[in-house]
Design goal:
The chain is α/β, with parallel strands linked by helices. The chain is built from ten helices and ten strands. It has an eight-stranded parallel beta barrel with strand order 3-4-5-6-7-8-9-10, surrounded by five helices. α2 packs across α3 and α4 packs across α5. The chain starts with 18 loop residues before the first strand and ends with a helix.
């Protein structure tokens, strides 16, 4: 595809994934967001990555979620996304929500990890350079860092908003007590937290006890990552490990030893429930996350346009009977 050849679908905001206000803010997020954690690095198929971003935007997915260390090697997802932005989306920046994060190891030496002011601000500058952007819409503290005072971390985030380098602030994977402190500090700074991002899926439900109620109490939005448990909550692994699946790779978080007979049995039973609902297992898993208004959006990490279309179709049925919820809960 030649430079600037892409023209978005004119009906991209009709019959789409739908939108929901993020917490108590005035910002709407698509119910399904596209994550670039996997499949957008230098080791991945760049043509398919471009097709997925085009397809996502054509179907009303306006939010693209990144982090400084996404892709293999680190930074490559942002770099590749930046090229796509420059060549295909330069006229549509104001229609997009672009988020990135910093908090995990990114470069060598004492300043390339953690949550210090030095690291966070340096990282955002690098991210903006890689993505060829003047600002990001959401900048996250990617994890709580016990070695850095929370006031320093939140102060750096607040300053990035005040300097116009980020429009909103988010936190990710924070313990409940530290999230509570972070919300209070950010309010005091005049830059309230927009959103909390955490792992949430049928197999991982701990946040229902603390993270979700606290976000609701503070008017903070919530977005779920890994809603398909790295692909486990799909029919991909029912008959073995496909050659090009995440578990087949030596890199990444999902490894072969995690796919045990017990897990496969649960997946098979969940797949039966999904079939009874007229959905694929992946669609049901996404719909399950979106069944509650406390979850404003889910981040999917599709590896193909076909898979992304399947994910989008989950929106067609997000209602569950009490019996279905009970049966799914027993397998979680």
């Amino acid at each position: 595809m030649s430079k600037n050849a892409y023209t978005p679908a004119p009906d991209r905001y009709t019959n789409t994934v739908g939108y929901q206000f993020c917490g108590k803010s005035g910002l709407k997020l698509p119910r399904i967001s596209l994550g670039l954690w996997h499949n957008f690095g230098d080791v991945d198929d760049t043509d398919e990555a471009l097709k997925m971003i085009h397809f996502a935007f054509d179907h009303g997915i306006t939010h693209f979620d990144l982090a400084n260390n996404y892709g293999t090697p680190y930074g490559s997802a942002e770099k590749n996304f930046g090229k796509i932005m420059k060549d295909h989306f330069s006229s549509y920046r104001d229609e997009l929500i672009i988020s990135t994060k910093a908090g995990h190891e990114m470069w060598p030496g004492p300043y390339g990890d953690g949550s210090s002011r030095k690291y966070l601000i340096s990282s955002l500058h690098q991210s903006l350079h890689r993505m060829k952007l003047d600002y990001v819409d959401i900048f996250y503290s990617h994890r709580y860092d016990p070695t850095t005072p929370l006031e320093e971390t939140m102060g750096a985030l607040s300053d990035m908003v005040k300097q116009g380098k980020a429009l909103y602030i988010g936190i990710s994977k924070y313990p409940e007590d530290k999230a509570r402190e972070a919300y209070a500090i950010l309010r005091k700074n005049g830059t309230p937290c927009l959103i909390n991002q955490d792992r949430y899926n049928i197999f991982t439900r701990q946040i229902e006890q603390d993270v979700l109620p606290l976000a609701e109490e503070n008017g903070v939005g919530f977005i779920a990552f890994s809603p398909l448990a790295q692909g486990l909550l799909s029919d991909k692994y029912i008959n073995g490990i496909p050659e090009n699946s995440r578990a087949a790779h030596s890199y990444g978080f999902l490894q072969k030893n995690q796919i045990t007979p017990e897990v496969l049995n649960k997946i098979s039973k969940l797949n039966e429930i999904a079939a009874q609902r007229g959905q694929t297992l992946a669609q049901m898993a996404l719909a399950w996350c979106l069944r509650t208004p406390d979850v404003n959006s889910v981040i999917v990490g599709a590896s193909s346009v076909k898979q992304l279309q399947d994910n989008i179709n989950a929106i067609q049925n997000t209602s569950f009977t009490d019996d279905e919820l009970w049966r799914i809960g027993e397998l979680g």
